[in-house]
Amino acid sequence: MDASLLPFFRPSGVVIVGASHEPSKLGHGVARNLVASGYRGAIHLVNPRGGRLLDRPVCTEVALVPDPADLAILIVPAPAVPDALRACALRGIRNAIVTSGGFREAGPEGTALEEECARVARECGVRLLGPNCIGVLDTHLPLDTTFLQPPGPLSGCVAFISHSGAMCAVVAEQARSLGLGISRMVSLGNQADVTETELLPLVAEDPHTRVLTLFLEGVSDGRRFVEETRRIARQKPIVVLKAGRSAGGQRAAASHTGALAGQEAAYDAAFHRAGVIRARTVEEMLEWARALEWCPLPAGRAMAVLTNAGGPGVMAADALEACGLPLAELQEATQAALRDLLPAAASVRNPVDILASASPELYAACLRLLLDDPGVHGALVMLPPPPMHLAGSVAEALVPVVQASAKPVMVVLMGGDSMRDATERLRAARIPDHLSPESAAAALAALAGHAEALGRCEQPPAVFDDLGPEAVREVVREVIRDAVRGAAGGHPADGAHSGGTWLTNDTAGRVLAAYGIPVSRSGRARSADEAAALASQMGFPVALKVASPQIPHKSDVGGVMLDLADAAAVASGFAAMLARVRSARPEAKIEGVFVQRMLPAGCDVIVGAVADPQFGPLMMFGSGGVEVEGLRDTAFALAPLSRPDADTLLASTWAGRRLRGYRSLPPADRAAVVEVVLRLAQLAADFPDLAEIEINPLRALPDGQGAVAVDVRIVVRRG
Amino acid sequence: MDASLLPFFRPSGVVIVGASHEPSKLGHGVARNLVASGYRGAIHLVNPRGGRLLDRPVCTEVALVPDPADLAILIVPAPAVPDALRACALRGIRNAIVTSGGFREAGPEGTALEEECARVARECGVRLLGPNCIGVLDTHLPLDTTFLQPPGPLSGCVAFISHSGAMCAVVAEQARSLGLGISRMVSLGNQADVTETELLPLVAEDPHTRVLTLFLEGVSDGRRFVEETRRIARQKPIVVLKAGRSAGGQRAAASHTGALAGQEAAYDAAFHRAGVIRARTVEEMLEWARALEWCPLPAGRAMAVLTNAGGPGVMAADALEACGLPLAELQEATQAALRDLLPAAASVRNPVDILASASPELYAACLRLLLDDPGVHGALVMLPPPPMHLAGSVAEALVPVVQASAKPVMVVLMGGDSMRDATERLRAARIPDHLSPESAAAALAALAGHAEALGRCEQPPAVFDDLGPEAVREVVREVIRDAVRGAAGGHPADGAHSGGTWLTNDTAGRVLAAYGIPVSRSGRARSADEAAALASQMGFPVALKVASPQIPHKSDVGGVMLDLADAAAVASGFAAMLARVRSARPEAKIEGVFVQRMLPAGCDVIVGAVADPQFGPLMMFGSGGVEVEGLRDTAFALAPLSRPDADTLLASTWAGRRLRGYRSLPPADRAAVVEVVLRLAQLAADFPDLAEIEINPLRALPDGQGAVAVDVRIVVRRG
Question: Chain B contact for A665, CB < 8 A?
Fold first, then answer.
C-alpha cells in the first residue's frame, strides 16, 4: 500500500477550496456534508469572499489555512484547478480531491487542462484523486467529502470503489434500501493520477470493510489489478460490476482465437483468475455483497427449499437449478422427522412444502431439520403472504434457527407491504431477505462461487522442467530482427498482419516442439516431384497444405487437400493446388506446399492463446475446424494455468466434454490435451511477444496415444 | 366461450357454505372479503350453527338459502364436499368454487375424494372450480371470493389466472407495489373440472381486461391452449410464467430429436407459436404486463438512451444490447439540435449524456428530440439521484413529452427514498418506472417481441399441392396392423422401442418421398454380391449401412462404412460390417445392408419432428451428425410452419446460418432446406402417429442443387 494515499482516508485537517455560500451550489453541498458527517479533524473552508459559512469562519485563501491541514477538496472552475493545486502544495497539503468537472470528459481543451493538473501534481508531490469525481466517504472515521444528497449511506462493512460518481449516489441509496451499510466509498473520476488498482489495498486494509464492491468502466493496469484483487479476495470477497459489455467489440485479429477473444472474454477470464465475482446489475452487486457479509459460505452447492405452497416451491427449484445449485437429496432420517411434524398432505421431499396453514413454529422446526441434514449446504425459505399467520412472526421464529446454523439461508418474502415487518426482523438479524427466488438463488450461487474461488486460488500453476525457452527466444529474436530489417528496407515483412508477423508453418512447429508439444510430421516441398518424394518417405495417406505466410486461412482458397493415397495423387494434387491458390490470391507469395502425414482418426479441438493488451496471455479452448467462430463452442482462461484450471476450461465446452467419449466416439487422450493446454499456456506466459498462437486442429488420438498439433499459426509482435 | 362458466364472474347471488364465525378461520376470511368487496348481488352465509355473522343472518343449510343464488363457495372439510355439492345442485346452484384443500395434493384418499367430487359435479350439472383453490376476484364488478388478506389488489386492467393460490396472494401484493391494477384474478387449484384453457376466453372477453397474465404449472390440453391463446393474444397480450423448468427432464426417446425435445422446448415452441410472451420471474411478468397495458408498441428495436451521467448510460446500453435492442443511430439533425441545447461536455450521440447539472426542462427537451427522431423506436431515460434537482421535478417535466409520443418510454429511477415522488408522478401518468436499466430494457424487449408476434401470427402455414398422404397412410396402417399381429402373437414387434415401431430405412424413405422430400438413392442388399451389384448400378463411391430395425444408431456399432470406391471394396466391406455388428449386437435381427450412393460434399444438418404429447408435432432443426445431443446447436418450433417460421428456425442455429456460406464453406441450397423443413412439418402435422421422424443428416448441396435426406428414422406409434 502506498503511504502517500493515506491522507485520503485519515486526514487530520480537510480544506474545502471553493466552499460556497449558495445552497444550490455543489461547493455548498460538500461543506454541508463534511460538517454533517461528524468528521472529528479540522475543517477549513476557503472562498475568496471570506465571511462565515455553516457557523464557521471562511478563509480567503489556502495559504491562510491554519494547522492541521493535509487533504484539500477542490471545487473551483476547471481552469483554476492547476493554480489551486500549486497553492495547496505550497501550504504543505499533499493530497487533493478534484471534484470539479470540465476536464477530459469535456473535449480537447479539458484534456489539456487535465494533463496540466497531473503534471502540476507530479511536480509538487501532490496525490490527486479525480478530477470529475465526488470524493471519498468513510462512515466509521467518519468523513464525507462528497456532495451526495443527505441522508447518505448507512454505516456498515461494505466498501464501494467506483469510476462513476453517479453510481456512488445510486449505491448509497440502493444499499440503504437493502438494509446494507457502507464502510468506505471512493469516486475515482478521470483518474488523472490515482487509479482503482492503487486505491484497492487502501480500502481493503480498512478493518471495518469486510466486502469490497467495484463499479468499473475498465482497468488501468490489468495485470496489477489481477494480482491485487487475487491477493485481497482471499481475505475479503470482491464483487465487481463492469460496465461496457456491449462496447467491447471485437479486436483486429487474424486467428480464430484472436477474433473470439473480445475484451469481455478477457475481463471474465481475469475476474475468474482473481477470484473476483462478477455481477451484471447493481442489485446483484449489492445483494451478493450483503450475502457475503452476512452469511457463512456453503460447503457445497446442494440446497434445500422450504415453502408453504407448491407454486413458489417449484419456482424456487427452477431458480436454484438455473444458478447451478441442485436440490439436495434429503436423508431418510430427515424425511422421517419432517413426516412426524407435518400433516399428511405436506411434502417431505425437497422442496419441502409444509402447507399454507404452517405456523411460525412449524417453519422454524422444519428449517432446523433441513439445516441439520449433512447433505444440505444451504437453504432457501419461501414465504408468500401466509393466509393464517403474520409474515413477521414467521420471520421472528426463523431467526434463531438461522443464527444457530453454519449454513447460509436466504428468505424470500414474496409480497409487498404485508412483508415489511418480516423484512425488518430478518435484516436486524443479518439474514438476507429477497423479493424473488431468482435473486435469492443468485445470491446463494455467489456464496458458493466465492467458496470455490477460494479453493481455486490455492492451486499453483502447472510447472514443467523440460521446456526449451532458448529455442523459442531465438525464433522470436530472428523474426524481430527480420521485421526491423524489412521496415528499414522500406518494404513490408513477409506474412505481415496488423501488429505482427506470421511465422511459417515449420518455424511455428519448432516453437511448439521446444515446449514439448507434439507436432505432426510434415515437410515443405517446392515442386511436385519433391512433394511426392517427401510423401513416399513419410508413408501414405498424406495431406497437402499451401505454404504462404500471407494465407493464414488455407482452406478458404483451396489450399488444403486431404487423404492423398499415393505418389501420383500427390504430384497431380500439388499442381492443381498451386493453380487454384494462385488464381484466388495472385498477390500472395507462395513458398511451396507442406506435405503432412495424415494422422489416425481422433477428436479435433482448437487450442489458442492471445496476448491480451490488458491482462496478458489469454487461453482459448474449444471446437475447432473452420467453423470455430460460428459455432462458438469455446472458453477462455488467463495463463498460466493450474491443472484444475485446465480441467475447468475443457469442461466448459462440448469439445472438451466429448474427449471422455460419446456414443460412437471412443474416449480420446484427454490427459494429453490437458498437457498441451498447460504447455501452451506456459509458452504464452513466457513469451509476451507471441501475440497469437493457435493450434487448429489439435488432434486428440485414442486414449493413451497422445495429442498432436496438426496445424499451428503463430504471430510474433513486431520489434 | 362456455356459457355454463358465466356465473363464476357474474353471479346474481353468492352462497358461502362454511362461513365461519371464527376470525382465524379461512371460512371467515372468505365471508369478510366478499362483504368487503362491495359485491352488489345477494350474499348468503351458510353454517349449521346459524346465528349472525358480519351483521347478516346465517342459514343453517343450503336448501334454505333464498333467491337469487347461482354461485356457491364451499369451505368445509374435504369429506363433506361431495354432499355439499349435491345440496347446491338441489338448490339449483350450478357453479361451485371448492376452496377446501385435502384432495389430490394430500395422497390417494384425497385423490379418490376429488374424483368423487368431479363425478358428482358432472352428474348434477354443476361446474366446479378447484378444489384447493382460492376462488375468483373481479375488481370492477366487484366480487371477491378469496380469503386473501386485505387490502387485496388495486383495481385495474390486468387479469391473472393461476394454478397456484399462493401466487394470487403474491401477485396481488407485488402488482400493488408496481402501481399495477388487477381486473380479474382466478385461482384454478386442482382443476377437477374447470381448466385454465376453458377459463381463458371468459377472462379475455372481460371489457376491463387489457392484458392477461398466467401462472402455469402445465397445461391441460396443449393444442387447445395454443389455439385459444393465439386467438386472444391478437387482441390482448398474454404474459405467462411457466414454473417447473427444472422438473421438465428428458423424455424416453430413441432419436436425437426425441431426446432433445424436452417439455420445456415444447412449451417454448408453443408459446412462440401462440404469440404468448414467456416471463421467467413474477417481477418480469408484472412489469411486462404493465408495459403492455401502459405503453404503445414500438415499430422496431432501435432504442435511445437519455442519461445525466456516463456510468448509468453505459449500463443502459449494455442492458439494451443484452435484450436484443440496438442503440439507435441518431440522425444528424437530431444531434445538431441536441448540440444547440447542451453544454460542450455533453454527449449528443446515443447514449445521450446531458450531464449531472441537467435541469428538468433540459431532460424534457432532449427526450422530445430523441422521440422525434424517426430512427428511434423507443427510449430509456436514466435518472440516478440528480445532485442539483429533485427527481420528482424531472419526472414531472418528462410526463407530457412521453404522453405526446407514440413511442414507448421507460424511466429508470436508480435510487431509493429520494425517488418516491418521481415514482408516483410517473405512475399517475401511466409511465413505467424501473429500478434498473436491465428490467427496463427487458420490458421494452417484451413490447418489441409482442409487436413482432402480432406480425408473425398473420403468416399462414406453407401449403403444398403435391403431397401423397395416401402412400403414408398405407405405411402407417401396415405398421399398426403388423404391430397388432405381433402383440397378438405374444412376441415383440420388430424394431420395437418404447411406444413405437421403427420403420426400416426403405419404408422411411418411401414416407419422405411421398411428401416430396428428396431421399438419397439406396437399396438393400442381402449378400456381398448383391451389394456389389447394386453399387455398380448406382455408381461409386457408395456407403454401406447395416439394415436392422433394432439398431437405430448404426455408427455406434460399426454399422456404417463410407466412400467405398469399387465393387471389391463393397463386397469385402459387406462381410466385415456384418461380422462387426453381429459381435456388437448378437441379439439384433439383421436384414442386410443398405447400399447408398455417396452424395457430393455439402452442408449436413439435422431436421426432425416428434409428436409432443401436449402440443402435437414439434420440429427440430440444427447441427446434425452423431454429436447433435452434445453440441446442442438446435432449435424447435411447433408445426405446421409458415415460411417466416422456418426462416426463424434456421436463423436460430449456427447450422442454419452457415447455409448462406461461411469462409471456405460455399453457400448451400438454403431454399431447398427450408422446403424440406416445411414439408416435414406438414408430414408431422398430417400424421400424429409418426411419433418421431428424423433426417440426420439432410445434406444441403451447393446453391441451386437441392437438399437430400441421407439417413432417416421414423418411429410409428403402435396401434
Answer: yes
